[in-house]
C-alpha cells in the first residue's frame, strides 16, 4: 500500500517532499500522515501551541504545507476580496496576502460555507487557488512567494435551485489540475487544465444537478483513476483523457465527501448526503457492482477515513462509527459532540476529528472498541481539516475577540 501511495504522490506532485502536504487530503489522497509521522494528543488555547497567527478574512480551506511555506485562501467580505495567504512554516509569520479577485462575490451561500472554502494545491514550484467569483470558477496560479502568474476561467457555476456556494477543491494529477463544477446548468462537469498554461485539456460531462464532491486519484484494479460520487452515481475517469472508465448507480443527489479506496481489497467507498444518507462500497473491477450499502453513518459534509480495511466516520451529529470495509458490518458507534463538518485524519495509529465548536477528539484507530485519548478545545469554531506535518498539526480555527469573530492558524506542538 505504501508503494502505491508513493507512486501516486511522485506522479502528481513532482518536486514536493515526503513531509509536505501539497493538497486536499495530502500526498496519498487518503488523509493519512506520512508513515512514522507523529502529532500531539493534548492542547488548548493556553498550552501546546508553537504559535498562533491571526488571519485576515474568513475561509474554510485547509492548510497546504510545502517547503518553508504554508498556503491558505481567505475572503474579506467587507472589502469584497478573495486572496491567497502565505505564512512561514516555522514562525507562523504572515508573509504575503495576494488578492486574486475584487468584488463579484456570490450574493447567497450556505451559512456554513465561505467564499474561500476550496483548499489550494502546490506542486513545489507553483500554487493553484480555486475561487468562485462572478458565478464562475477561476483558477489562479501563483509562484511560491504568492505572486500571481496567471488566472484562468474554468467554467460557469451558477446554481439556480440551491444557492449554497462552492466547495470542491482542485486536485493535481500528473501535469493537470482537475476541478469539479457540478450544478444545475450546462457547464456542469469535471475539467482538467494544464498546470503550465491553464488551458483546458479535457472535460467530462456531469449531470446538471448540484453536488460538491472532490474527485480523487485512486488505485483500483491496478489502474490509476479519478473516482467521485454524486448525483445518484459513482464513476471512475481516466485522469489524462477524462474518458469514463466505469459508472454505477448509487450514491444520492448531493454529496460533499471525497471517496476513499482500498487497493488491496479492490474496493472504493462513498458517503453522503442529501436527500438521503448512505455509506457504501463498490467493487473496483467487473461490473463495479455495489457490494454493500448502509443508511448510517450520515456523513454529508465529511469524508470518511480508511485504515487497515476499516472505515472510520464522524456523522453530522457527532456520532463516531467504525465499519468493516469488506461487508459494511458496524463494529462500534460512539456518541461524541456535534455538529461536525471537518473530516477525520489519521496519524500514527490515531484518528483526529474536530467539530464545529473547535473540539478535537483523538481516539485510537481500533476496530474492536472505541478508545478516546483526548478531547481538546481550541477557539470557538472550526470547519477546516487540520494538516499533519513536522510532528505538528496546522489547525485553522476562529474565536471571538472583543465581540468580533477572528480566524487563526495555529501550529499545535512544540
From TrEMBL:
Annotated region (Disordered), positions in chain: 21-61
Protein name: PQQ-binding-like beta-propeller repeat protein
SMART domains tied to this protein: PQQ
Pfam family, one: PQQ_2
Superkingdom of origin organism: Bacteria
InterPro entries: PQQ_b-propeller_rpt, PQQ_rpt_dom, Quinoprotein_ADH-like_sf, WD40/YVTN_repeat-like_dom_sf
Domain (Pyrrolo-quinoline quinone repeat): residue spans on this chain: 46-156, 165-256, 306-358
Organism: Aeoliella straminimaris
Amino acid at each position: 500500500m505504501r508503494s502505491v501511495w508513493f507512486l501516486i504522490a511522485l506522479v502528481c506532485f513532482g518536486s514536493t517532499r515526503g513531509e509536505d502536504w501539497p493538497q486536499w487530503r495530502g500526498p496519498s489522497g487518503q488523509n493519512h500522515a506520512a508513515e512514522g509521522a507523529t502529532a500531539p494528543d493534548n492542547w488548548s488555547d493556553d498550552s501546546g501551541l508553537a504559535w498562533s497567527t491571526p488571519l485576515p478574512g474568513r475561509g474554510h480551506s485547509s492548510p497546504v504545507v510545502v517547503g518553508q511555506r504554508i498556503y491558505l485562501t481567505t475572503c474579506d467580505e467587507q472589502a469584497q476580496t478573495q486572496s491567497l495567504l502565505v505564512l512561514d512554516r516555522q514562525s507562523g509569520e504572515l508573509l504575503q496576502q495576494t488578492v486574486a479577485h475584487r468584488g463579484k462575490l456570490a450574493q447567497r451561500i450556505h451559512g456554513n460555507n465561505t467564499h474561500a472554502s476550496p483548499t489550494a494545491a502546490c506542486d513545489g514550484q507553483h500554487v493553484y487557488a480555486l475561487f468562485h467569483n462572478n458565478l464562475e470558477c477561476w483558477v489562479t496560479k501563483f509562484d511560491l512567494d504568492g505572486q500571481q502568474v496567471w488566472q484562468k476561467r474554468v467554467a460557469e457555476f451558477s446554481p439556480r435551485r440551491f444557492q449554497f456556494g462552492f466547495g470542491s477543491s482542485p486536485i493535481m494529477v500528473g501535469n493537470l489540475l482537475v476541478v469539479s463544477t457540478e450544478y444545475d446548468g450546462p457547464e456542469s462537469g469535471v475539467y482538467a487544465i494544464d498546470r503550465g498554461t491553464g488551458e483546458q485539456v479535457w472535460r467530462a460531462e456531469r449531470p446538471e444537478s448540484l453536488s460538491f464532491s472532490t474527485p480523487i486519484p485512486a488505485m483500483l484494479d491496478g489502474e490509476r483513476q479519478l473516482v467521485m460520487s454524486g448525483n445518484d452515481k459513482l464513476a471512475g475517469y481516466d485522469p489524462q483523457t477524462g474518458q469514463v472508465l466505469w459508472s454505477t448507480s448509487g450514491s444520492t443527489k448531493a454529496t460533499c465527501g471525497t471517496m476513499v479506496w482500498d487497493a488491496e481489497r479492490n474496493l472504493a467507498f462513498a458517503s453522503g448526503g442529501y436527500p438521503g444518507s448512505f455509506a457504501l462500497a463498490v467493487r473496483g473491477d467487473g461490473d463495479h457492482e455495489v457490494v454493500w450499502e448502509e443508511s448510517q453513518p450520515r456523513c454529508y459534509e465529511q469524508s470518511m477515513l480508511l485504515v487497515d480495511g476499516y472505515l472510520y466516520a464522524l456523522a453530522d451529529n457527532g456520532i463516531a462509527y467504525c465499519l468493516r470495509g469488506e461487508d459494511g458490518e458496524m463494529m462500534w458507534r460512539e456518541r461524541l459532540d456535534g455538529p461536525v463538518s471537518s473530516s477525520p485524519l489519521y496519524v500514527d495509529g490515531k484518528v483526529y476529528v474536530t467539530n464545529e465548536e473547535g473540539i478535537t477528539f483523538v481516539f485510537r484507530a481500533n476496530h474492536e472498541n472505541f478508545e478516546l485519548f483526548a478531547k481538546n478545545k481550541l477557539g470557538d469554531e472550526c470547519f477546516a481539516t487540520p494538516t499533519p506535518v513536522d510532528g505538528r498539526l496546522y489547525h485553522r480555527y476562529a474565536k471571538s475577540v472583543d465581540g468580533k469573530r477572528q480566524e487563526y492558524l495555529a501550529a499545535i506542538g512544540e
